[in-house]
Amino acid sequence: MDLLDMVNSFIDKGYGVINVNDHVDVQKGNKDDDYDSDDDGEDSHDVEEIKDSLKRLFSFNGDEARRKATLQVQKACRNVINDNPSSSDFKMQLMACLRDQGFDAGLCKSKWEKNGKVPSGYHEYIDVNINETRYIIGVSLVEEFQIARPTESYTSLLDVFPQIAVCKVKELKMIVRIMCDAIGKSMKQQQMPVPPWRRHGYVKAKWFGPYKRITSDESAAKIMSVASKEAIGFLSFPGRSCYKSQRQDHVGNKLNFEGGNLAMVMNGAT
pTM of the entire structure? Predict the structure, then answer.
């Protein structure tokens, strides 16, 4: 049984099968957005299975291109002025730094309209194409799945997330499906409704719906030029589209790479 079948076996009882196509149609019905299960308890064995599946999805699994891209993203993050991974400025600068390193990186902008219980939304993320394979980059991806009053079991799933995640589209789809299902279970046990922005239909629209991809150095330079005017104590390097701080301590400590997360980035989850 491969990983896709394993994931389907324990999260898709009554929910159908994960769609592994690159795009999803957010205008279609979202019947899987309502978590409806008679199982209110948490089986420790099931939780461990889910954690193991997440670790496998985040690991490199012999994908050398993915490993190298992850290491380059880690290095590029140190050259970004903005220390907020969710900001547009951070993502634009990170994309520009990766392109400076020779990667076919792009800033992707997805946007969708309200449909049923799925509210309208907008999201930006970075992707990179390597050997005709598309990878999606997530810095602090765990923030996309944080919820109020999480159960202990759900928190243990968040602990699996690395600081930097570089995933194929199919892998990220499986991660999203696992986590949205876990959100439904956690919030049901806490007798809380799932907020619209944490439902599966909304979350999957962020990465798997139609998007516009920006790759031009001109677009990157324009946005980063605005950022550099607002920054104090930063220098630009001629011929480069990413900037470094004059304060070395700021550059070296913008992202808090915990020991466990760094080990996962360097070696892959086990």
Answer: 0.70
Q: Helices in the chain by DSSP H: which ranges?
A: 3-11, 44-58, 64-77, 88-100, 152-158, 169-189, 200-208, 217-230, 248-252, 259-267
Cβ-contact 135, 166 below 8 angstroms: yes
Phi-psi map region of 102: left, alpha, beta (phi>0 left; psi -120 to 50 alpha) = left
Q: Burial letters for 181-199: b for 16+ Cβ neighbours within 10 Å, e otherwise? A: bbbbbbbbbeeeebeeebb
Q: Are 32 and 215 in contact (CB under 8 A)?
A: no
What pLDDT score does 39 carry? Answer: 52
Contact residues for 132 (Cβ-Cβ < 8 A; gap 6+): none
Q: What is the pLDDT of residue 229?
A: 44
Asked if residues 243 and 228 have their Cβ atoms less than 8 Å apart, the reply is yes
Neighbours of 95 (CB within 10 A): 31
Q: Report pLDDT for 42.
A: 61
Report the distance separating Cα 162 and Cα 58, nearest Å.
8
Instruction: For residue 200, give every residue at least 6 positions away whose Cβ sits within 8 Å of its Cβ, in sequence order, or none.
Output: 30, 32, 33, 176, 177, 180, 181
Q: How many Å is the maximal CA-CA distance in the chain?
A: 61
For residue 36, the cross-strand partners are none
CA distance 264 to 64: 14
Q: Which of 28-42, 85-99, 103-117, 171-185 has the lowest mean pLDDT?
A: 28-42
- What's the pLDDT band for 44 if we cut at 50, 70, 90? confident
Q: What percent of the chain is modeled with pLDDT above 70?
A: 64
* Neighbour count for residue 219 (Cβ, 10 Å): 14
Interval 104-126: pLDDT, tens:
999 999 999 998 888 999 999 99
Q: What are the backbone dihedrals phi and psi of residue 84, each rounded to the nearest 5 degrees, phi first?
A: -110, 100
